[in-house]
Amino acid sequence: MSADTDRNGDQLTQATGLSDILAPGLSVVFCGLNPALSAVRDGHNFSAPSNRFWRVLHLAGFTSRLLRAEEERELLQYGCGITAAVSHATKSANELTWNDYLKAAPALEARMRKFAPANLAFLGKAAFAAISARRDCDWGKQSDVFAGANTWVLPNPSGLNRAFSLDRLTEHYLDLRSSFHSAGSGSVNGLTNARIDA
What CA–CA distance (Å, rounded) separates 11 from 145? Predict the structure, then answer.
């Protein structure tokens, strides 16, 4: 996550040295489980060549072109943001425990209340399951609201997640994207009206 500022111009840097990509009133914030070591090394979110995040966002219609990890701030122009449930980096998200997510939940909630996105999309089930105290959840929109945001659980786009092909990943992300269109929004790329502080 690279350098970003809040509405007061304060930098939002996580413990890893990466920053959230956030602005007030976004349509959706994509919430990764935690930063990968490669993201910390590269200084950009979802930077591993095997990570399919940027490709899936483009294929699902969140962006008009395929962005590169170093162009992550451009997501704000599309009403989208990025954060992580847990700020410390690991080689694999499997290294995180249920308690890691629970300890990180208050900080995540504070960020979401501050920036008030319409939707929060957890990338993978682990963080949402821990925070909601539901060991089992389905993919897609959840009945829970977190910090005022509608919650979604989408498959993790990591290249380590071999359970989902690119096509299957795109279908799940498209469900979220389609919900914006059906809500009748009229801003950039069909996303709900978001203030853009790019």
Answer: 27
Closest C-alpha to 42, from 66, 69, 80: 69
Q: Which two tokens stand for residue 80?
A: 């989208």
Distance CA 148, CA 181 (A): 20
pLDDT average per 10 residues of sequence, the chain (198 residues) = 38 58 97 88 91 97 97 97 90 83 96 98 95 92 96 93 93 95 50 32
Q: Which helix (H) or strand (E) holds 83?
A: strand 80-84
* Gap between the Cα atoms of 117 and 25, Å rounded: 5
Residues in the chain: 198
Rounded to 5 degrees, what are φ and ψ at 152? -130, 150
Task: Specify the 3-state DSSP secondary structure of 192.
Answer: coil
Cα–Cα distances (Å) from 126 to 103, 121, 137, 173, 198, in that order, read 14, 12, 10, 18, 31
Q: Say which residues have a Cβ less than 8 Å from residue 176's Cβ, sequence separation at least 6.
A: 28, 60, 119, 121, 141, 152, 154
79 Cβ contact list (under 8 Å, min separation 6): 26, 27, 28, 187, 188, 189, 191, 192, 193, 194, 196
Q: Which two tokens stand for residue 7?
A: 């509405």
Residue for token pair 């389609």: 178
